[in-house]
Amino acid sequence: MLNVDFVLLYVANPTASVAFYTELLGRPPVEASPTFAMFAMESGLMLGLWARHTVAPTAAAPTGSGEIAFIVPDVDAVRATHADWAARGLPIAQEPTAMDFGFTFVALDPDGNRLRVFVPNGH
């Protein structure tokens, strides 16, 4: 059985994206170069930020075509995270709302990738 170990986002400016994600995640990258950076999550998942212009083979999708989901324990945590991120100036693509899968909101990173925070139904 395969395991998902890495999620890679293609970014326009790795330096700007590293600064953004360092602040957002509250941790520095475990690896960083001018064209690539990697963050280690407590879950074991690795988040990579790769300069789009150096991806091989060439990436056909534009930057901003990905989504990262963050599960939080309850509706209050969704609202608190929304308030925090809005106060930090993150663009909000979707205000807190109930959807089929749970209560959620969506913010955007510097490349337009979606950052979805949610509590699944039943939690």
Care to describe what's here?
With 123 residues, the chain is α/β, with parallel strands linked by helices. The protein has 2 domains: 6-54, Signal recognition particle alu RNA binding heterodimer, srp9/1, CATH 3.30.720.120; 67-120, Roll (2,3-Dihydroxybiphenyl 1,2-Dioxygenase, domain 1), CATH 3.10.180. It is built from 2 helices and 8 strands. The chain has helices at 14-25, 75-88; strands at 6-11, 31-32, 36-40, 46-51, 67-71, 92-99, 102-108, 114-120. A 4-stranded mixed β-sheet has the order 1-4-3-2, covered by helices on one side. The longest helix is centred in the middle third of the chain and has 14 residues, at 75-88. The protein is globular, with a radius of gyration of 15 Å. The mean pLDDT is 94.
In short:
With 123 residues, this protein is of the alpha/beta class.
CATH superfamily of the largest domain: 2,3-Dihydroxybiphenyl 1,2-Dioxygenase, domain 1
Main sheet specs: 4 strands, mixed
The portion of residues forming beta strands comes to 35-45%
Total strands: 8
Low-confidence blocks of residues: none
Number of helices: 2
Q: Give the fraction of residues assigned to helices.
A: 10-25%
- Specify the overall morphology: globular
CATH topology group of the largest domain: 2,3-Dihydroxybiphenyl 1,2-Dioxygenase, domain 1
User: What is the rounded distance between the termini?
Assistant: 28 Å
CATH architecture of the largest domain: Roll
Gyration radius (Cα, Å) is 15 Å
SS-derived structural category: alpha/beta
